[in-house]
Write a structure and sequence with these properties.
CATH superfamily of the largest domain: D-amino Acid Aminotransferase, subunit A, domain 2
Distance between the termini: 24 Å
Shape: globular
Number of strands: 15
Helix content: 25-40%
Order of helices and strands: EEHEEHHEEHEHEEEEHEHEEEH
Largest sheet: 9 strands, mixed
Number of helices: 8
Number of domains: 2
Structural class: alpha+beta
CATH topology of the largest domain: D-amino Acid Aminotransferase, Chain A, domain 2
Amino acid sequence: MPRTVYINGRYCAPEDATVSIFDRGLLFADAIYEVAGVIDGKLLDFASHMQRLDRSLVEMRMPAPLTHDEILAVMRELVKRDQVEEGLVYMQISRGSTGDRDFLPPEGMKPTVFMFAQHKSDVTRQEFQNGIKMISAPDIRWGRRDIKTVGLMGSVFAKWTAKEAGGAEVLMHQDGYVTEGGATSFYIIKDNTIITRPLSNDILHGCTRKALLKILEDGDIGLDERLYTLDEAHSADEAFITGASTFVCPVVQIDDAVLGTGKPGPVTRRLQDIYMDFIHKDAI
């Protein structure tokens, strides 16, 4: 089936979607993005993604090119056209083009907006069931990781490091403390308590993280938001990552440290069940 994408108000084939060579997203990574998960052909955590998008736009001093309702309509149309039952929708907004290159953009630029849908891969499904190995690496990204910008080469370099060492995801650390995964939020579990880094400019404010922690507020699983070391991660009872299309994915090994029995642990399995039950009911 031919694939459909959206760019600047129209739907078209991918090969017909073009942007100017002077677009600031290309020249300066002057662009932000969002990734909304899809389950049962419906969108996950849409309101949270729009809140984060609005925050990124404000921090980047960019106007909102579409309303939330318009974005929702486009995302739903892409999911429908590409028949995505489980996967994601990617949206990117750049500051646009002035027809030339200059560091400081003028006022009143027209943003470039594009979106496309993706099907979830079989590899991701296998990782959800069996768990993954993570490889640690220094966090070399810029200091405003709370803004979901497309300047992702720090994460790309780190993910290369992980792949070359046999890992499925990288576990980044800075100043002696764990930050997050290359494209995911990271958590350890110790004595039935989830430990994860508190929100700041040092990590992305994950929408799946927000939803999961909200669900657990009245439960019997503890939560400790604090800084913690790589050694603590190596000695955790269990660990897991979350993301828009990752959902809740077990981590069974970090570097040479096998966690627990080397298989997804009981708390992580319970978290998977809780979150999957929630999203099947909450998706729109």
